[in-house]
Design a protein that fits this description.
This protein is an alpha+beta fold and about 150 residues long. It has two helices and nine strands. Helix content is about 15%, strand content about 30%. β5 and β6 form a beta hairpin.
Length: about 150
């Protein structure tokens, strides 16, 4: 059973895949979802191979990016940054009335400071010791482009 958070994430990925042209080759209807266990990206253009991440969040106002978005595991993200590897990021926002917006940040506009490690989960947690990160949108707020 998918959790509400997973369902929201799946919805956001499908929205991007069905409505956004590929930022690289500009073709439409070429974006495909990657399998859930594919770690570095969520979607791929099956014409040019452009990889992107998609983050979806529930917000009060879809015109305003939230301060923080929940990222994934910190270890791989830190290693990618050390290697200078960044992936284009779509941020899909949805409000309770059903309005949505799609915002895009290309890889070359991303900076290490926008990825901030969180404290490792405490000993009592299900995944004790696991460390995640947040994406701080404040750092790059004016670099996002609103697509829809
Ligand atoms: Zn493409």
């Amino acid at each position: 059973m998918a959790t509400a958070k997973q369902k929201l994430g799946d919805w956001g990925e499908k929205l991007v895949a069905s409505t956004c042209a590929c930022p690289s080759c500009k073709r439409s209807k070429t974006t495909r979802l990657l399998p859930p266990n594919f770690k570095c990206a969520d979607i791929i253009c099956d014409f040019c191979g452009y990889l992107s991440q998609v983050k979806t969040a529930r917000v009060k106002d879809v015109r305003v990016l939230p301060k923080n978005l929940l990222g994934a595991a910190w270890g791989p993200q830190r290693e990618r940054m050390q290697a200078g590897v960044y992936f284009p990021l779509y941020v899909v926002l949805k409000d309770n009335a059903g309005n949505s917006s799609v915002n895009f940040l290309s890889a070359d506009l991303q900076v290490p400071e926008m990825f901030q490690s969180r404290n490792p989960l405490s000993a009592g947690a299900k995944r004790a010791g696991w460390q995640g990160f947040t994406i701080n949108c404040e750092v790059v707020r004016d670099r996002f482009v609103r697509l829809s």
